[in-house]
Amino acid sequence: MTASEPVSVVLVGAGNRADVYSRVSLTHPDKLKIVGVVDPDPVRRGIMAERYRVPDEFCFESVGDFISRPKFADAAINGTMDSLHVKTSIPILDAGYDLLLEKPFAVNEGEMNALLDAAARTRRRVVVCHVLRYTDFYRAIRDHVDSGILGDIITIEMCEHVNYHHLAVSYVRGKWRSEALCGAPMLLAKSCHDIDIMLWLLRGDAPLYVSSFGGDYRFGAERKPAGAGTRCLCDCPLEEECIFSSRANYLDAVRWTQYVWKPLEGAGEPTYEDKVRSLMTDNQYGRCVWDFDRGGNVDRQSVMIRFSSGALGTFSMIGGSAKSERNIHIVGTKGELKGTFEDSRYVIRTMSPHTKAGFCERAYDLSVGGDMIGASGGHGGGDEHLVLDFVDYIRGGSPSVSCATLADSMMSHKTVFRAEQARRSNSVLPIDPAKEEIP
User: Which of 46, 218, 296, 425 is most buried by its number of CB atoms within 10 A?
Assistant: First the structure.
């Protein structure tokens, strides 16, 4: 491979996230080329093969089939489910491929250490898809923190509101509804992004202790409204007034099509009648949200972290809001920063005792937008920036300030693992038990 050639990549796991990253090959064909597809689902495998013009001979049912072929690409994009990340990544590394790996890169510490060992043994490059680092919003905030304008950081407060229809489609009806199903609790599956951002902004300030509380407030059979049915479109007299109605969310509104209509893939464009019939019969997104076993998973959780400097970090994941929103508020010894990711706006206030208000304020408007897919791409443009940075890294460039290598991502994963242990045990835990003791 030369600097003028596109990086050749095999797509492992033909789901939504890997597809999003792979679309860079369509907008930047000089940077990235998809040359293989691996997925056990023949329908998804065929869709991706057609989209990226991959010949049948380079389409594989399993990772084993893929790596049995002599190496024919530079790297792989691993977009498999959470519990499969390490199991599929280690043989790919052993086969000589560099790797762009979806978060969370591991679902427990044993897996985390196994993958770290494999990457060191094979000397392959592994980048974790912490896309928020690549957004204009968080990258600008990082620059302000580094500039010293806020002084020494005292507290960093972060909050992610997951709106009600996102919560229902992914974490109640969907494949991330329980740890038994996807391998990861909700804090890890949804919000390891956010814990990573906190540690990335406070780099060099080691997280020492963590506590956490959370639970399931609104779901489960015991909370099901009296008289509710089993399927929204079949037997529920409350359907018209229910905010989780499959008719309102998936038929009347066009939302989450990549998940809801997956059972209809491969049979042409489904009609409205096809969709109604699907929701009334075998489609899990037509079931009542209160009938799913979530295995003790949470719908809201708060985490508090103490750092080595004495700074405190708090993060809350709150499921069921009207609007999805990520908020951040950093307070330092010289000033504060407060903003909302989805609005692409934040303000910096610095102490000014000689002014009437006691502070000076400057507003910043990046005019990008949060998780909306548009001209800037998904995650406020972070998806595309991530892939292009990975391409530069694979071509021999140095990791950028946003690049999340395995070593970079290890501490945020470990912090989430400890937070979940703290939640379950109602305790305060050292993040590294070998080095720290609770005072």
Answer: 46
